[in-house]
Every structure is written in structure tokens, then in C-alpha cells.
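User: Hi! I'm working on a homework problem where we have to compare a predicted structure to a textbook description. Could you give me the structure for the chain below?
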Amino acid sequence: MRIASRHLAAVLAFASVLPTAQRAAAEQIFEAEYAIDYLGLTVAKSSFVTAVADTYFNMYGTISSTGLAKFFDSTKGTTKASGYFGAGGVSPISYSVDYTYGKKAKKTALGYTNGAISQVDNMPALPERRQGWVGVAEKDFKGAVDPLSATLIRTGDRNKVCNRTVRIFDGEIRADIVLTPSAATPAEVPGAGKGVACSARFVPVGGYYSANASLDCLLSNSCVDITFAPRGKTGVYA
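Assistant: Happy to help. Predicted C-alpha cells:
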């Protein structure tokens, strides 16, 4: 449970903002708040602000949770990501996460050059790996984006939201999220209308131990649905 919670915190916490001179007048701001309930109690809250323009995006999020005894530790963190929209999809510029999980403080930052990951900073440094570790090969970085940028797609065709594979790297794990249309009824997102429901399949690529109970659970449970909601009239789904 602790492993899964740690990666949830990492996904919900990252950093970067485009210079003011690059911000367009047509920028639109979207805000969202989320809560996680357990046995009727709110155990975690998060908020996200997304700025979308014709060519670029900025995202900023926070998360705060209260630990529940032996289930998981308390978590507090912030996350940011920025990048551009291009013909080939999102092109991140930078991404970072700064969070505290229990008594452990962690930071991760990714830098990009020409749309490709060129810098990975983890503080503290990742530990020495034991036998059974599956590393991330250089070729696996190609086309990979951070977990926040991976949630965005700009398209005028709702049918293109699914039927694709998203290559994600969070500073440690490289994984593919294979999206296909879902038979589930899309959730109605307040203020955004009906979304697009996709079934998601998690495929680890590198940055993990071959014997990992959390990954085994993800691989054996394929009933994960994700709803992508339209962001106003920007053509962006998130």
C-alpha cells in the first residue's frame, strides 16, 4: 500500500511556468478540485489550475492528505508542468514535483530539449538497485512525457481521444498507458459537459523490479476507466 501511495503522490505533484512574455491574450484558465473519501471521511484533497492557449499550456496542482493509521501516511505536495501543443501532440518543456510523504521529502524535476527528455533530477538520489531491477533504456525515453502533460490531448475529433498509447516517465518509472474506447458511460463533468471514456491498460517498460506486488496488481486488473473532459472551446481534453 505504501508503494502505491508514493506513486500516487508523485503523479499528483510536479513544476514550471512559461515566461510572461510568451503568455497569450487568448489564454483560458480552468480550475478543478478533487476529494478522496474513505468510509465517509475525506482523506485527501487536491486542486489543479490549467492555463491553455493556442500554442502552450501551464498546469499547477496541490495535494494534501491525512494519513489513516497503517493504510497510508499523510502527503502534502505541489506539482507543475508546462509545454506546447504541436502537430505531433504535447511537447513538454519542464515538469517537477515537490512533496512530503510521511517523514520523507522528495523532489523530481524533468527537463526537455527539442521535446525529448534530456535531464532527470531526483532528490534524494534514487537508491542503488538490487537484482531483478528492469532499467530504462535510452530508446525508451523517445516520445515519453511526464504524468501531467500526458493527461492532455488537443483534437477536434472525440474519436481520437482514445485509440492511442501514452508513453509516461515520472523520473523513475517508464510505462505505457494503452487507451481504447470504453463501453462505460462517460462521466458528466461539471462545467465541461460529457467527457470521453477510455479503458486504460498499464504496461511497465522500465524503472521497476520484476517482482513487484503493486505492478502485478495493476497488470492483473484491466478494468480501469479514464474520462477525458473537454476544456471549454480550446479543443483540449484533459
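For your comparison, note the following. Residues 1-24 have pLDDT under 50 and may be disordered. Residues 133 and 191 are 44 Å apart (CA to CA). Good luck with the assignment!
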